[in-house]
Amino acid sequence: MTRFVTRRAAIGKLLAVAAAGGLVLATTACGGDKTDQKAPAFVSGQQQVTPSPTAPPIPFQFAVTPADKKKDLPVSTEIGTSVKGGEITSVKLTDKSGKEVKGALREDKTSWVPNAPLKYKTDYTATVIATSAAGQAETKTVSFSTKAKSGNDIGSGLYLFNGKTYGVAMPVVVEFSPGIAKKDRAAVQSRLFVRTDPPQPGVWHWVSSGTQAYYRAPDYWKPGTKITVRAAIEGIPLSNGRVGDQDRKATATIGDKFEMKVENKTKKMQVFKNDKLVKTFPVSLGKASTPSSSGTMIVMDKQEHTVFDTFAELGPEEGYRTDIDFAQRLTWGGEYIHSAPWSVGDQGRRNVSHGCVNLAPGNASWLFGQTKVGDPITIRGTERKLEPGNGWTAWNLSWSDFVKGSALPVPGSLKTPGSATPTPTATD
């Protein structure tokens, strides 16, 4: 049996719980039979080589943004840094009282990002020092002010809660309401920072509506990984006149690898812990008129006791209201793993549910005690395929398809699994 609830209601409940370059070799063409060619000179038995001329040094160029005296900037403003023939050696940002703002350079050193949103209607001064290859230091100073809070915010949420432990398939999920337009996604994505320890490469992927962005690696996270996330979107201006509502941060840990695999053909669930088969359970899936989804899903939420009430969705003739134990949500559309004492006789034999994975009470209780939000379950062989965005569907895509959903260019080393260099996406 399943619970058909609206996606909006499910989202509200979950949010309420939370708070390069190539080497060119110079060669000499064959010279034919010219008689004026000289044989190479030898000194002490070695060929004398004429040194190549040294390439001229790159001229030192240094620029900073925003422009001096700029007013009404968003509180998401970064200190842009552009330098040739040298490097940025210092960035200092202070408010009008002289208090220093903490922050850090991006990995590519194209800008300096404050650790928290700037204050509204406040004056700031940025002092940036760059040093040339020859050791020459140059300082640039710019002053600017931020705008007042607009009140025309987008809604946002981060499905990663500080201090929690998650399963190995847990994507970083950022949600937006309304969705982010395609032309704004690159700017928003550039403000989504993820750091993993130990380092594991990853990419962001946007669902087509722009309401969610997922971040994952080519493979499941390593058990014990610490994930630190900052969705630094407060004040970021969007093309529809809205701005980001607030910055969201969390640091979480990945627990043991726990995975479930269900085959419709056998009507059985296999349970693996750290890649070792530990349990096999009979199940009943969705009947032909309400089939379960085939694909890789993620445990999104767990409720030891709940009520499935479908009257609002299905009406008085088809709706039902049922007490449910050990419910684990898999999709926004209402597919769960749960205890189903009424279908024990069918489990392992036939499908009778409304789309859920039915288990015997004892099996459902044991499984509920083992799983974590973020644990993966793969269901195969049913009449319906999992729809993108119906739940946290980040793992229902191949890696090559997943990277296509990024709004920013993906480095070539990240496009092929196994060839990526494990470096953080950005620092905050």
Automatic annotation (TrEMBL):
Q: Which residues form the signal peptide?
A: 1-31
Q: Which UniProt keywords apply?
A: Acyltransferase, Cell shape, Cell wall biogenesis/degradation, Peptidoglycan synthesis, Signal, Transferase
Q: Which PROSITE patterns match?
A: LD_TPASE (PS52029), PROKAR_LIPOPROTEIN (PS51257)
Q: What is annotated as the active site?
A: 338 (proton donor/acceptor), 356 (nucleophile)
Q: Name the CDD domains for this protein.
A: LDT_IgD_like_2, YkuD_like
| Pathway the protein acts in | Cell wall biogenesis; peptidoglycan biosynthesis
Keyword RNA-binding recorded: no
Q: Extract the Pfam families matched here.
A: Big_10, YkuD
Q: Where does the record place the L,D-TPase catalytic domain?
A: 258-380
Q: What is this protein called?
A: L,D-TPase catalytic domain-containing protein
**Which species is this UniProt entry from?**
Asanoa siamensis
